[in-house]
Amino acid sequence: MPDRSEGLALFHPLVRAWFSARYGAPTDAQERAWPLVASGRHVLITAPTGTGKTYAAFLFALNELIAGRWPRGTTRVLYVSPLKALNTDVRRNLLGPLGELAAFFRERGEELPEIAVAARSGDTPQSERRRMARRPPEILITTPESLNLILSSPRSREMLAGVKTVILDEVHAIVATKRGTHLITAVDRLVPIAGEFQRIALSATVKPLEETAAFVGGYRARRSGEEWLYERRAVEIVRSSARKEARLEIRSVGPQEAEEPTGEAVWERVSRALLARIEERRSTLVFVNSRQLAERLAHLLNADTRELVAYAHHGSLS
């Protein structure tokens, strides 16, 4: 087993102190990935959900921006995910820690450099796109389709000329699809603009790993006389040994009396039982078998609370 403090030694002292205070020891995926990321190698990280893949990919890039080794004022980190909703979560999950780091630095008499994080998708207003082109964020979060559109615009693609790291999330979802081809060709279109940059791919489950790593790395073109030679980029594979544990409970909210309730009475009992569980936990997912039931149950859960606790989502909602 590696020393779990070894990877943290690569970071700015205050970043290291904040991480230790906030999260304790790094996860297995982080400890294995950080030395490779710090050395500039291309990496494919596969680990179960909830084992710290986001920090495994992002934290060293944040460290370089904080330490001033990557000048600010242009986009240095490009994060691409096939899931637009995930992009919103990632932006929020970066802004929160950046706020915590800023407070942590101030308490110790230092100022954290301002690091802008922005998301761009098909829903981004034109005014916001123009603002990004004028003042590029240090971290840009986008989708494969939006990346291709950025690269097709002479003005927009200028903000990607200084990219140092490209993070490709959820690669298992698109590696064998047309969207995957669309994504990796966009990544390769970025090379003539930004030069060679580090590629970090993330996935909870992807097989075969070697083929996925080859997909992520692509080919580097090298001229030899009158001919062009193409060489595969080497991609290191980080396979976390962590295992997620799940606990399964089967509960009934049925009545003790012999007569079964029907209609609203059943769902009122279900909603009360669910609300009790929701209040005990940080996040809860409730799966139902119809769109109508999703809306109905969300309404019941929110009916007796002072603030919104449940949101309905189904195929008819954007």
Model description:
- This protein is an alpha/beta fold and 318 residues long.
- Helices cover 44% and strands 14% of the residues.
- The chain has 11 helices and 9 strands.
- The chain has a 7-stranded parallel sheet with strand order 3-4-2-5-6-1-9, sandwiched between helices. Strands 7-8 form a two-stranded antiparallel sheet.
- Helix 6 (144-152) packs across helix 8 (178-194).
- The longest helix is centred in the first third of the chain and has 24 residues, at 84-107.
- It is globular, with a radius of gyration of 23 Å.
* Average pLDDT taken over every residue: 88
- Biggest beta sheet attributes: 7 strands, parallel
Outline type? globular
Helicity level, as a percent range?
A: 40-55%
- Distance from N terminus to C terminus (CA atoms, Å) equals 45 Å
Number of helices: 11
Low-confidence stretches: none
H/E series: HHEHEHEHEHHEHEHEEEHH
Q: Please tally the β strands and state the result.
A: 9
Sequence of strands across the biggest β-sheet = 3-4-2-5-6-1-9
- The fraction of residues in strands falls at 5-15%
- Class computed from helices, strands and strand pairing: alpha/beta
Radius of gyration: 23 Å
